[in-house]
Amino acid sequence: IHLLHQGHTVVGAKDGPDALARASWERPDLIVLDLRMPTVDGIRVIEILRGNALTAATPIVLMSAADREWATRRLPQDPLVRFLEKPLDFETLDGMLAELLPAALG
Length: 106
Prior knowledge:
Layout: H1 2-5, H2 16-26, E1 31-34, H3 42-50, E2 60-64, H4 68-74, E3 81-85, H5 90-105
Parallel strand pairs: 1-2, 2-3
C-alpha cells in the first residue's frame, strides 16, 4: 500500500517462480522481494533474474526479518541490489527507491 500511495504501480506475485515469470513479461522498473518465499528463495530469484537479459539490470530491494549480516553475506555483489530489514522502515525504503529508480529510468 505504501508504494501505491507513493504513486508506483505494484504487481504482486505468489512465490519465486511467479515473480520470475512476471518480471520477464512485466519488465518492472524495480523489484521488491522477500528473502524467504515458497519454492524458490529471494537469493535464488536474484541469481535467475541476473541471468536473464530482460531483467539483468533491474534494481532489486530484498527484504527479510533474517539476521542482516547473514542475509547480506548471501547477496551478490551488485550495485543495484539493496537489503532492507523487517519490520520495514518506510523512510529507508523510500531512500532506496530514490537511489535505485534513477538507475532504472535513466
